[in-house]
Amino acid sequence: MKLKENCLMEIYTDNEDSFSVGFYLSSFDNFTLFHLLDAQGKFDGIYLIKNDCIKNINYETEYLNKINSYIEFWDNKLEKNPFSIESYIKNFLTMEELLNYIQINNILSSFKLMEEKHLITGYIQFFDQNNIEIKTIDIGTAKEMEIISFAKEDIVLIEIVSIDNMLLNYAHLKKINFGN
Questions:
Q1: Which of 61, 79, 121, 143 is 20 to 30 Å from 172 at the Cα level?
Q2: How far is the first Cα of the chain from the last one, in angstroms, to the nearest whole number?
């Protein structure tokens, strides 16, 4: 699937009831990296989605026209993307490079696995060619939970950087450092 660069798009996945909106960043290892926007046209996160899960892409809709107007509004307000990671990570060529970056920088990430309804959120503790170990963080309390191991081939999406995960990371680090 050839995606347009620098073009806002609707991304439809296995979940037929909803879609994501964002920009294409890069593709590698049967995955595609996107810069996603929220419903207000602001940065929502950087997501890696398994290509097999992408069912459709739309480039010209009334909704996208509205989101483009929102983007223009925010650009005029000088509110910029608070995440500098995008320009760096779009140059990764393999899943190994991306996972290594996430682990070295201790980036709280969420993983969607095949056959799982819920995301697994936490920090990569270890990964090799076949498996990943994540120290999970409870999204309701920001407390550390157990370490979960899963096969890399089961990954269908990785939420690498998002507002939700940045807030959860902040709350988690505050608990560790200040006991709150």
A1: 79
A2: 47
Helix %, strand %, coil % for the chain, to 5?
A: 30, 40, 35
Asked whether 7 and 23 are in contact (CB, 8 A), the reply is yes
Closest C-alpha among 63, 50, 57, 68 to residue 9 = 57
Chain Cα centroid distance, residue 48 = 6
The upper half-sphere exposure of residue 74, i.e. CA atoms within 13 Å in the direction of its Cβ, equals 16
Q: pLDDT per residue over 117-165, tens digit each? A: 899 999 999 999 999 999 999 988 888 999 999 999 999 999 988 888 8
Closest by CA position to 37, among listed 56, 55, 58, 11: 11
Cβ 174 vs Cβ 154: under 8 Å: no
Only one residue has tokens 């490079």, namely 97
